[in-house]
Amino acid sequence: IIFHNVGSLGNLSVETFRMANVEELRQYYDLNVFKVISLNTQFLKIFEDVEDRVIIVNITSLCAIKPMGGMAYYCTGKAAREMYFKVLAEEKKNIRVLNYAPGPVETSMIDYIVSEAVNENLKDVFVSFKNQGSLLMPEITAKKCVKVLLAGKFGPGEHVDFFDD
């Protein structure tokens, strides 16, 4: 089993229509997409003989399937990664692939969004999550992910969110 959990938010201080720094974009995609694909490729080479027992979990986000203003880097990176794993699941039907969205988790990422985002609506959403106490503790969403894996009732490359039944 491998969990792909690397993730960064990217530049939250630039609006989508002003994303002109190609080098910054390359660095973002290098970490959040290309290195994940490279690591996954090496993992599959090592376990090629037992791939029917391989489980791949990509930690994704609602942002992979729903646009969120002010988070173009994050949304597009998560969407690209999720699609890669869906295509992999389509090609390698004997490998179990899950795209798991853990929900809004209490991490330093939330504080970064609140302090760095230029999009006021984005800030307001996460300030509201914090103020209402609706952020999830990491261990709660991790347990849900394990429960989903043990139940095995997800389709190939399916996007499963913490809040799904």
Give a concise summary.
The protein is of the alpha/beta class and 165 residues long. Helices cover 49% and strands 11% of the residues. The chain has a 4-stranded parallel sheet with strand order 1-2-3-4, sandwiched between helices.
Description:
This protein is an alpha/beta fold and 165 residues long. The protein has a single domain, classed as NAD(P)-binding Rossmann-like Domain (Rossmann fold, 3-Layer(aba) Sandwich), CATH 3.40.50.720. It has five helices and four strands; from the N terminus they run βαβαβαααβ. It has a four-stranded parallel beta sheet with strand order 1-2-3-4, sandwiched between helices. α1 links the parallel β1 and β2. α1 runs parallel beside α2 and α3 crosses α4. The longest helix has 25 residues. The protein is globular. The two termini are 23 Å apart. The model has no long low-confidence stretch (mean pLDDT 97).
Protein topology:
Blueprint: E1 2-4, H1 22-46, E2 55-59, H2 72-91, E3 96-101, H3 108-116, H4 120-132, H5 138-151, E4 158-161
Helix pairs in contact: 1-2, 3-4
Fill in the keyword field for this structure.
NAD(P)-bd_dom_sf, Rossmann fold, 4 strands, 165 residues, alpha/beta
Helical percentage? 40-55%
For the report, how would you describe the main beta sheet?
Answer: 4 strands, parallel
What's the average pLDDT? 97
Structural domains: how many: 1
Widest sheet: strand order?
Answer: 1-2-3-4
Protein name: Sepiapterin reductase
Subcellular location: Cytoplasm
Pfam families: adh_short
GO molecular function: sepiapterin reductase (NADP+) activity
